[in-house]
Amino acid sequence: MIVLSAFLHHVAAFTLVAALAIEFMLIRNELTLANARRLMAVDAVLGAAATLLVVVGLARVFWFEKGAPYYFANHAFIGKLSLFVIVALLSIIPTIEFLSWRKAVTAGQVPQVALAKLKRVKMIIHIELAAIVLILLFAAMMPKGGLV
Structural domain tally of the chain? Predict the structure, then answer.
């Protein structure tokens, strides 16, 4: 079960990163009906991957790995988890925006989005990607408990 949980955790993490990278590329292009549909679909995959990542990650912490006392005493883990929560909270903004497009997209229309809103969504996706790089740094630091 430990190997399966590690495998699922890694698949979810890589799926999340891939979905976020695809969102990053799509949001840079002109907003068309096709791109709006793609962004909505990719964001759904991102949400599913994040959910799986949290569920499997917490299962690993509490039941399959070194145990909660080890992880919650590990500063690198706390940093990694904190950044993940920040990214999750930030991701709510693009998700709400993409969900607001549903009516227009269903009607076969390009969503009308204010330039400032689109710019904010782009910035948030950039921040999420940068935070993921830091999450990877914290993950690399975890076996030693911090910087060594």
Answer: 1
For residue 41, the number of C-alpha atoms closer than 13 Å in the C-beta half-sphere is 9
Copy the structure tokens of residue 101.
């497009």
pTM of the model: 0.88
* CA neighbor of 37 nearest in space, from 133, 111, 139, 92: 111
Q: At what angle do helices 2-28 and 33-59 cross, to 10 degrees?
A: 160
* pLDDT in the model for residue 144: 74
Domain interval for residue 135:
2-144
How high is the pLDDT of residue 148?
55
Q: What angle do CA 140, 144, 148 make, to 5 degrees?
A: 90
Q: What is the DSSP code (8-state) at residue 143?
A: G
